[in-house]
Amino acid sequence: MVKPVAIFDLDSTLLEGDCEILWVEFLAKRGLVDEPYVKQVQIFAQEYLEGTLNYADFEYHLQKPLLHRSAAEGQDLVGAFLAGIEQYFRPFMLQRLAEHRRQGCAAILATAANSLLAQPIAQKLGMDTFICTQMEVIDGIPTGKIVGFPPFREGKVEKIKTWMAEQPVTLSGSWAYSDSYNDMPILNLVENPVAVTPDENLRRTAQEKGWPILEKAAQAL
After folding, report:
1. Helix 115-125 and helix 71-82: axis angle, to 10°?
2. Residues 6+ apart with CB under 8 A from 191
3. What CATH architecture does domain 3-214 belong to?
4. How far apart are CA 1 and CA 153, in angstroms?
5. pLDDT per residue over 72-90, tens digit each?
């Protein structure tokens, strides 16, 4: 049976916050990163908002605390972080996800977040598949290098179309959810785009186009 797709962004959409920023805060609380490290992440975060982020530089910096640890140490650290991630899931978006599943949609997590965090989060959410920034891992230790290209802006659409071409899914009756204007290519791809607690540019665009805007309250389909 061919299923319509329901595409969900992760950060500030399904999650209250950004998983990679939450990861940095987790490291800082444990005293594992210093102030210059955190300040550089803040610079990268601003570049993301401006649409100018170099993902290769960002991900390498982000993963520096793992590069010189053993595989077991790194896995324990990531595991400790992910053990608390469910508190950041947005209930009103989990409700949307559940409703789409009941309607027979294929649920896709599509995020530019790295695979070390995005893959286990997708598994916790029970997604049919996930698309994220794939990181190189050798002998269980990340190298900080990106494999392929990050799913950012048009890159996210390209990766989704590649996956869809090999699956019994369709854009007929499709949905997409995002908070970010950077996801306009995805929102324009589907029949039912939805802005979720959107940034200023996406809010303005959604209002102009008459797209639904979800705030932090449960709203049924």
Report:
1. 50
2. 171, 172, 173, 174, 175
3. 3-Layer(aba) Sandwich (3.40)
4. 30
5. 999 999 999 999 999 999 9
Cα–Cα distance measured from residue 147 to residue 135, given in angstroms and rounded to the nearest whole number: 6
Residues in the chain: 221
198 within 8 A of 215, measured Cβ to Cβ: no
Cβ proximity of 112 and 132 under 8 Å: yes
Rounded to the nearest 5 percent, the helix, strand and coil shares of the chain are 50, 20, 25
With 60 as the cut, is the pLDDT of residue 218 above it?
Answer: no
**Model confidence at 220: pLDDT above 70:** no
Please, are residues 194 and 175 in contact by the beta-carbon 8 Å criterion?
A: yes
d(CA 194, CA 34): 38
DSSP strands (E only) in the chain: 3-8, 106-114, 129-133, 135-138, 141-146, 169-178, 192-196, 213-214
Percent residues over pLDDT 90 in the chain: 83
Tokens representing residue 21 in the block: 């920023």
Phi and psi angles of residue 118, each rounded to the nearest 5 degrees, phi first: -70, -40
Convert the pLDDT of each residue in 49-63 to its tens digit.
787 888 889 999 999
Q: Which residues are catalytic?
A: 9, 11
- What pLDDT is attached to residue 221? 61
By CB atoms closer than 10 A (0-12, 13-18, 19+), residue 79 is exposed
